[in-house]
Amino acid sequence: MNNPHLHLRIETTKKSRIKELDTEPIPFGKIFSDHMLVANYSQGNWQDVQIIPYGPIDLSPATSALHYGQAIFEGMKAYKNSNGEPLLFRPDANHQRINQSAERLCMPAIPESIFIDGLKELIKLDDDWIPNKNGSVLYIRPIYFAVDESVGLKPSDSYKFIIISCPVGAYYSHPVKLIVTEKYVRAFEGGTGAAKVAGNYAASLIADREAKEKGYDNVIWLDGIHRRYIEECGTMNLAFVIDGVVVTPKLTGTILAGITRDSVLTLCRDWGIPVEERAIAIDEIVQAYHQGTLTEAFGMGTAATIAHISTIGYQGEDMIYLR
Ligand code: COI
């Protein structure tokens, strides 16, 4: 699959927009770095791999991803170390996950030479865009979608893979207020819940909007069958500290296998903090809250980082941890 001889064409920008980075605080996902990586797949091959100035792309209105949603993405980050060298956080894990999402949507795998080697070239070129302010980083957004010009339903024969990046500040700038939704469901066994599929996020927007109308930041999804077991938040995985144990929903195929989640659990285990990955009923959280054994709740995600949860709303009651 990997093609070490892949040719990468690089066209640098004539005029950097780096001055846009002077904004304080840096907004999340609004300012894009100078360059992007673009690769095309057609006739069974990856081709035209290039790094070019960031800008709009030409698409036909018949582009099949726009109709049937054969579209996936990733979220990852680059930092600078104390010597000012750029560091990517676990890019292999994102590469593996995008190919799992691709398989779920009948899309060809992206070779390492494009995803990893191409990304490294892009970040080298745009490394001035990695902010050196505390709490700010370069967020990297790989996107991969079907581009057949066709309105018949079938897996596309041609695809576009693009990597853009944007310097970002905090996704949540305050402790997060979440509400459990009993009205909407994010995923079912056999569905696409574990894949980073654009449609999962589109389908979540109505619940998110209703949560915001009630003064919350986002929703907590319950499982689609019993409507009882906690799944994830949609922008991040969730964990609770009950009786000194970090408890998080098990990966059952309906929630995203977060890379930050995996890193947090690995660190906890290394530090001797007990961790349980298991089914967590919402009633268990309510009970632990009333008994005083629930001492903390937090989200884990690339964009969200570790987000403290201040409030969980459920059936008209607010459980408040941080006052
Ligand atoms: C990420 O954490 O990278 C995501 O893709 C979540 C998104 C809602 C910003």
From TrEMBL:
The reaction(s) catalysed by this protein are:
L-isoleucine + 2-oxoglutarate = (S)-3-methyl-2-oxopentanoate + L-glutamate; L-leucine + 2-oxoglutarate = 4-methyl-2-oxopentanoate + L-glutamate; L-valine + 2-oxoglutarate = 3-methyl-2-oxobutanoate + L-glutamate
**A Pfam family matched in the record:** Aminotran_4
Kindly list the positions at which N6-(pyridoxal phosphate)lysine occurs in this protein: 196
Q: Which domain of life is it from?
A: Bacteria
**What's the protein here called?**
branched-chain-amino-acid transaminase
Q: Does the keyword Phosphoprotein apply?
A: no
Q: Does the keyword Amino-acid biosynthesis apply?
A: yes
Q: What is its EC number?
A: 2.6.1.42
Q: Which family does it belong to?
A: Belongs to the class-IV pyridoxal-phosphate-dependent aminotransferase family.
Cite the annotated pathway.
Amino-acid biosynthesis; L-isoleucine biosynthesis; L-isoleucine from 2-oxobutanoate: step 4/4; Amino-acid biosynthesis; L-leucine biosynthesis; L-leucine from 3-methyl-2-oxobutanoate: step 4/4; Amino-acid biosynthesis; L-valine biosynthesis; L-valine from pyruvate: step 4/4
Query: Biological process GO terms, please?
Result: isoleucine biosynthetic process; L-leucine biosynthetic process; L-valine biosynthetic process
What keywords tag this UniProt record? Amino-acid biosynthesis, Aminotransferase, Branched-chain amino acid biosynthesis, Pyridoxal phosphate, Transferase
Which GO MF terms are attached to this record? Answer: L-isoleucine-2-oxoglutarate transaminase activity; L-leucine-2-oxoglutarate transaminase activity; L-valine-2-oxoglutarate transaminase activity
